[in-house]
Amino acid sequence: MPDRMKPTLRVVVVLLLLVAGALVVACTKSTEAEPRASGTCGSGSGTVTPAETATGPPGTAIYRYTNPGLVATMSLDGDSGTLAIENDTGRDLSPPAFYILDARNGERVNGQVKNAATIPNGETKTFRVSFGGLGIKDIGLAILLIGHDNYGAFARQ
């Protein structure tokens, strides 16, 4: 076989460097046209670790859950707060509930929704909420429940 047809070590090294460079750019580059999560790529995991954000003074937090037709916003100050649910799902929603996973040990902490009630389609309802046994800084995840259905985690704002 002629020498020009054989891949050389130099060509292989150049290709590997190009691939590595493309991976680095994919993990750190963001454009105005396509917003991306801020943070850093895990080592080979392909996941992005978001930059830590917090609003309000220590001991307060705002959590938001969004899905087509449904926005739930939980504002916490200490161990109580409010849960506002905007229902544009096209159907009535069962009464809401929530629980929290303790960031220190993963234990479930049940929350209480005072006077939980059905949320008719097209309406927004606000409920008083409370929980006990941990501080805002120890909240790992806050999970939204609608009736018996687990809707998933709120995102801290």
Describe the model.
By secondary structure, the protein is mainly β. The protein has 2 domains: 3-50, no CATH class; 60-156, Immunoglobulin-like, CATH 2.60.40.1240. The protein has 1 helix and 12 strands. The protein has a 6-stranded antiparallel beta sheet, with no helix packed on it. A hairpin with a 5-residue loop joins strand 6 (96-102) and strand 7 (108-110). The radius of gyration is 23 Å and the shape is elongated. The termini are far apart.
Poorly predicted parts: 29-45, 47-54
Considering DSSP H and I runs of 4 or more, what fraction of the residues is helical?
10-25%
End-to-end separation: 63 Å
The tally of structural domains comes to 2
**Rg, Å, rounded:** 23 Å
CATH class of the largest domain: Mainly Beta
Provide the structure class. mainly beta
- How many beta-strand elements? 12
Helix-strand topology string: HEEEEEEEEEEEE
**How many distinct helices?**
1
Q: Give the overall shape, derived from the CA principal axes.
A: elongated
Strand ordering within the main sheet? 8-9-5-4-3-12
Strand residues, percent: 35-45%
The CATH topology of the largest domain turns out to be: Immunoglobulin-like
Mean pLDDT: 80
CATH architecture of the largest domain: Sandwich
